[in-house]
Design goal:
The protein is built from eight helices and five strands; from the N terminus they run βααβααβααβαβα. By secondary structure, it is α/β, with parallel strands linked by helices. The protein has a single domain, classed as 5'-nuclease (Rossmann fold, 3-Layer(aba) Sandwich), CATH 3.40.50.1010. It has a five-stranded parallel beta sheet with strand order 3-2-1-4-5. Strand 4, helix 7 and strand 5 form a beta-alpha-beta unit. Helix 5 crosses helix 6. The longest helix has 15 residues. It starts with a strand and ends with a helix.
Length: about 150
């Protein structure tokens, strides 16, 4: 399964600069997309803000995706995700600035056994953290991001 960060999910359900790229990616993939509880909670807020409605058609489409085989809800096992978050923080925080929520997302991807982290968030270092933790990041890291990866 591929772990979808919130901005990836938003690009699927709203017209963004990345929507065409995401649609092409989804058509070519055979792996299911994992939507962690953290990302789903963030989407609930973001979808309401972007649509101006609490229960928008965008939210309903996301919920419908979970009824098929291509999108899977990934529950958060808090003890495991918290432990992995502590591990990532101890290892990377001294040299890489990453927010707590982004670290939780990367930890959830790792705990869930997802080999790929789907994210467009190049401003937060989430993608760099994911690559530093040995996840494959899609889309590929930029040259600027690659320099910040910690090995």
């Amino acid at each position: 399964m591929d772990y979808a960060d919130t901005n990836f999910i938003v690009a699927v359900h709203f017209r963004t600069a990345h929507t065409g790229l995401v649609e092409k990616f989804i058509r070519r993939q055979s792996l299911p997309v994992a939507v962690g509880e953290l990302a789903e909670l963030e989407c609930r807020s973001v979808f309401a803000r972007l649509s101006g409605r609490r229960q928008s058609e965008h939210w309903e489409r996301l919920q419908q995706r979970f009824l098929g085989d291509d999108w899977v809800r990934q529950p958060v096992v808090w003890e495991e995700v918290a432990a992995k978050t502590r591990e990532l923080t101890d290892k990377f925080a001294p040299r890489l600035t990453v927010g707590s929520m982004d670290t939780l997302h990367v930890a959830a991807a790792l705990v869930g056994g997802c080999p790929r982290f789907l994210s467009f968030d190049s401003n937060s270092n989430a993608r760099v953290l994911a690559a530093s933790a040995r996840l494959t990041v899609w889309p590929e890291l930029t040259a600027e991001e690659k320099v910040r990866v910690i090995r």
